[in-house]
Amino acid sequence: MKRAFCLATACVIVWLTTRALIASTSVGVFAIVDQVTFEPTDKATERVRISGMFVVPVPVSSGLHKALQRGYLYFSLIPGKEQAVRKDWADLKAVAGTGRVVGFGQYWITKPATGAIHWSLEVQVHDKGDAALPEPYPVPNEKGIVKTFDSEGDTRPRFREASSTIIERLRRAYRH
Asked: Nearest Cα to 147, choosing from 111, 98, 112, 107?
């Protein structure tokens, strides 16, 4: 009986720790957005080009992010999530040009080809003059576009780097 209780307690602790870790790394892309362009038109949006500075996940990395990159992201709608995606895009357009750090998309995704869960988001930042094909927009974050980073979950260390460090890197780069 005591052994079963200890095992159950250990399972609960692991479950809670995993949930806290996933919550603390839920933002996929950190950005300062300069411009948002809807395609083909503002009223019939199917694709979006988001220009600015980005910190995106390292593919297959368990919570790590790449160095800051300037350029643009080019996305298309996700079938079945059009309303949530268009809301994200409208919110990103609203903060464009303000210099405000935002977060969007889920960090942990299900890999489309294999169905593997807890796969880190893969997003390509394109250089300003480069042509690109649109990628499906990341699964929208459960909070939508994250504009406030002031809770314990937003600043918990991400293996090697805290969200607050990522945000400060973006702010410093924007000022220079």
From this structure: 98
Contact between residue 39 and residue 135 where contact means Cβ atoms under 8 Å apart: no
Residues in the chain: 176
Torsion of CA 107, 111, 76, 35, to 10 degrees: 20
Whether 101 and 170 have beta carbons less than 8 Å apart is answered as yes
130 phi/psi in degrees, rounded to 5: -80, 145
- Residue 104: count other Cβ atoms within 10 Å of its Cβ: 25
SS3 content of the chain, % helix, strand, coil (to 5): 30, 30, 40
**pLDDT for 146-172, tens place per residue?**
887 655 555 444 556 778 788 888 999
Rg, C-alpha atoms of the chain:
18
Angle at 162 between CA 107 and CA 59, to 5 degrees: 35
Question: What global pTM score does this model have?
Answer: 0.79
